[in-house]
Amino acid sequence: MTTSVSISSPEQDMPALLRTWWPVILGLLVLYVPTYWDLSNGIWNSEEQAHGPIVLIVALYLLWTQRGVLAPDVASSSGSPSRPVLGWFVLVIGLLLYALGRSQEILLFEVGSQIPVLIGAMLITLGMRPVRALWFAMFFLLFMVPLPGFVVDAATGPLKQYVSVIAEQILYFFGYPVARSGVTLTVGPYQLLVADACSGLHSMFSLSAMGLLYLYLMQHGSWTRNALLIASILPIAFVANILRVMVLVLVTYHLGDEAGQGFLHGFAGILLFVIALLFLFALDGALGYVFKSHKK
After folding, report:
1. Domain end point (choices 115, 144, 173)
2. Residue 30, Ramachandran bin (φ over 0: left; ψ between -120 and 50: alpha; else beta)
3. What is the Cα–Cα distance from 31 to 155, expressed in whole angstroms?
4. I need a surface site. Which of 4, 74, 97, 188 has the fewest CB within 10 A?
5. Residue 139 above 90 pLDDT?
6. Coil, strand, or helix at residue 11?
7. Looking at residue 105, what DSSP letter applies?
8. 232 and 155 belong to one structural domain
9. At what angle do helices 263-290 and 201-218 cross, to 10 degrees?
10. What are phi and psi of 191, to 5 degrees?
């Protein structure tokens, strides 16, 4: 004789989900709605952190599509006990980070605290099963967290130097009258400064987020294929940023300074990011011919 466990659909479990999770949802809204409001009126309006709302929407979508694992009957049928001690420990750490970040205006702590807060609440309520099932949504929220200033400062300088050197050498090879002094490129009568936004650091961060999301959704069974794609993300972003600088130099040289610093300046960044993402997809397609395609 066999015994089967019937698990209702997420739609049927919505009343049970709300009964279980409404205190957590209410607490999260009280804590983080002010945070999101500040972000939407602050760094999310900058080019460097414009990916923040997209990361949040994607993470919420992933949580919503897997909401069935948060149902109490699913956890009990899977034999996953709650972990109140570990859960409270993680939750308290998250709340302390939030309090410190909110009071001292440290976005790294304030935004990052939502991950241990969510994990702690799940451990207390249902145990490890929902944490394991929702691991990628929790991990993906990391891309919302602003990079620490010392990391940005340490990486931006060398990246700007490499980008300006390589762009100058390529353009000079093709016969353009370009010279470089530090991170300033001179082409014809124009001078262009390779600013922090042109270093490529934030495009690497954004492309990493989209690339890892793509791999998660594709669920390739080959670890080698996944590793090669992950390893290619940063080089692709770096090359795309060199192309961005070269395009802006060429636009300025042929069309003038106003064209190079106007609409085309922002559009070039968006266009090259899309091209980098498409190149990642194309590389995955090419690797599909090398590695046997099967899903996990």
Report:
1. 144
2. alpha
3. 32
4. 4
5. yes
6. coil
7. T
8. yes
9. 40
10. -120, 135
The domain in which residue 237 lies consists of 149-290
Q: Return d(Cα 184, Cα 162) in angstroms, integer.
A: 12
Q: Token pair of 245, please?
A: 């600088």
- Residue 167 CA to residue 147 CA, distance in Å, equals 26
pLDDT of res. 147: 83
- For the chain, where are the alpha helices, taking DSSP H only? 14-40, 52-65, 72-77, 84-104, 107-112, 114-125, 128-133, 135-140, 149-173, 201-218, 223-255, 257-261, 263-290
- What residues contact residue 153 under an 8 Å CB cut-off, 6+ apart? none
Average confidence score pLDDT of the chain: 84
> Where is the domain boundary, 144, 159, 190?
144
Question: Which is nearest to 81 in space by CA: 42, 129, 115?
Answer: 129
Model pTM? 0.82
Q: Do 278 and 167 fall within a single domain?
A: yes
Plot region of 3 (φ>0 → left; ψ -120 to 50 → alpha; else → beta): beta
Rounded to an integer, the average pLDDT of 260-269 is 69
End-to-end CA separation in angstroms for the chain = 31
Longest dimension (CA), the chain: 86
Do 241 and 187 fall within a single domain? yes
- At 150, the pLDDT band (50, 70, 90 cuts) reads confident
Q: Are 111 and 145 in contact (CB under 8 A)?
A: yes
Residues near 56 by beta carbon (within 8 Å), at least 6 away in sequence? 36, 141, 144
Number of domains in the chain: 2
Please tell me the distance from the alpha carbon of residue 184 to that of residue 110, in angstroms, as a whole number: 36
Hunting for tokens 């702590």 — which residue is that? Answer: 109
C-alpha separations of 4 from 7, 41, 67, 114, 145 in Å: 10, 51, 21, 37, 43
Determine the pLDDT at residue 157.
83
Active site residues: 198, 244
